[in-house]
Write a structure and sequence with these properties.
248 residues; alpha/beta; Rossmann fold; six-stranded mixed β-sheet; four-stranded antiparallel β-sheet; 10 helices; 37% helix; globular
């Protein structure tokens, strides 16, 4: 996970563009024709109530949920219909809601699974050590089965595993869910560090205040429709967002 060049000529250009995305479950339209973009180098937050369509949107982006209509463009090319493993090779990775660790594998084995698209053995070992530098607790327990770890430790492992494929863009789905306040602080600290290294991030997060405080820009999804978007600081100050999502 070498630190990326902050002066990349692609910086500021759309890395991910969502155009007219519609996703249905059976006869129910869960995402209703939304449009948004994430520029290279940005940390963008997608907020909304439970059932708004946030996780469905991420699943559609990563090829885990079929699209009913629209297009998804990553790095200048349409990725509609591409399988998830092909997207990982393109540099698009996701940390799913619920972490999704391989519970019967050790920490080391989970991290190696994150690098399955790579053939540079020395680079993989170097990146494992970099993950351990970010998450020292994982290094202390590297031979421990993932299923015996706490929720916060499994979230660390899921994030570390995603970083092992050296993603250009990382999708995070509710990384703070179910964690203690101290662990939430740690997870958001790591999200900030990953973004600082130059990885583009799309963050779906129930804690709207923390998500917008981290982000440069944000979008609000309501019942499958994109209702607002703009600078994160502007959304934080918007009375509609404060009333609906910040409890104020």
């Amino acid at each position: 996970m070498p630190e990326q060049n902050q002066k990349d000529p692609s910086a500021g250009k759309p890395l991910l563009s969502i155009k007219g995305l519609r996703v249905a479950y059976g006869g129910i339209m869960a995402v209703k024709g939304i449009d948004f973009e994430v520029r290279a180098g940005e940390l963008v937050s997608l907020i909304g109530a439970n059932g708004a369509g946030k996780t469905t949107t991420l699943k559609a982006i990563t090829g885990l949920q079929p699209m009913a209509d629209g297009d998804i463009v990553f790095d200048g090319q349409s990725i509609r219909g591409k399988p998830a493993h092909a997207l990982v090779r393109m540099g698009l990775a996701m940390v799913p809601e619920g972490r999704g660790t391989f519970t019967r594998m050790t920490i080391d084995e989970n991290l190696l699974m994150g690098s399955y698209t790579r053939g540079d053995k020395q680079g993989v070992q170097d990146d494992i050590e970099r993950v351990f530098s970010i998450f020292p607790r994982l290094k202390e327990r590297r031979a421990q089965l993932a299923g015996t770890m706490s929720g916060g430790e499994q979230q660390m492992l899921a994030m570390g595993r995603a970083m092992m494929c050296r993603p250009r863009m990382l999708l995070l789905d509710e990384p703070s869910m179910g964690l203690s306040p101290i662990m939430v602080d740690k997870i958001f600290e790591v999200v900030t560090e990953i973004a600082r290294q130059g990885v583009t991030i799309l963050l779906v997060e129930q804690n709207a205040k923390r998500a917008l405080e981290l982000a440069q820009r944000g979008y609000v999804l309501d019942s499958g429709t994109m209702t607002m978007g703009g600078e994160a600081s502007t959304l934080l100050d918007d009375p509609r967002v404060r009333a609906a999502y910040l409890g104020e």
